[in-house]
Design goal:
alpha/beta
């Protein structure tokens, strides 16, 4: 009963959910995935016009656009959902969390694989854009509004425009997506500013020391 497993997982992730039954009846992200299961089955059985029609109907109902060709693993949690776009050749692993405004898109008009692949336990923050046919490794976290254009290693955290890896780790429990922590992420720009400030302070101190030595002469 995959539909019930999905509902239970979402209820465990969302503190606002009162239980799986509320998810089953009320959550548009859950409904978008259920409609996608149908459209994807039709797509792989060559009934692609009907599949696309169902996906567009689901988009109208939920605000989530998932191409019927996309491959989605079990227990995907789409929170709020509005404005999400998932491209035709995108692949999403198990137990991933995706927030509103996310795009899993391509970067051109080439045929074949042109959309990203997300591993298991990946968290994608609100407004993030992941563009291109590369892999986001297991347990990775993508910060809100990040624009990711190249491969992300497992257990890494990416923030910024364009996205840069700001933390790496091998501890799955520390970096897994079910922590839902989108706030305590490093700021790479602030880190660069801090480093420049430290270097400036060092140079100023060196100049002061040089001036004192000249006075002694």
């Amino acid at each position: 009963m995959g539909f019930w497993e999905d509902a239970k997982y979402i209820a465990s992730q969302d503190p606002a959910a009162t239980g799986p039954w509320q998810v089953f009846f009320m959550y548009p992200g859950y409904h978008a995935v259920r409609w996608h299961r149908i459209s994807h089955w039709l797509h792989i059985h060559k009934m692609r016009t009907l599949a696309r029609g169902i996906s567009q109907f689901a988009r109208f109902l939920t605000g989530v656009e998932i191409h019927p060709g996309a491959k989605i693993g079990k227990c995907l949690f789409i929170d709020h959902g509005m404005g999400i776009v998932i491209g035709e050749t995108a692949e999403i692993g198990d137990y991933c969390n995706i927030y509103h405004g996310v795009t899993l898109g391509g970067t051109g008009k080439d045929k074949g694989k042109r959309h990203p692949t997300l591993g298991n336990h990946v968290l994608v923050g609100a407004g993030a854009k992941i563009l291109g046919p590369f892999t986001v490794g297991d347990n990775a976290r993508i910060g809100g509004n990040a624009v990711v254009l190249k491969e992300v290693p497992p257990n890494a955290t990416v923030v910024g425009v364009p996205g840069v890896v700001v933390t790496r780790g091998d501890n799955q429990q520390q970096y897994c997506s079910w922590e839902l922590d989108q706030v305590s992420l490093p700021d790479p720009i602030q880190q660069e500013i801090d480093q420049l400030q430290q270097r400036l302070n060092t140079l100023c101190e060196d100049l002061r020391q040089l001036g004192r030595n000249d006075d002694l002469k």
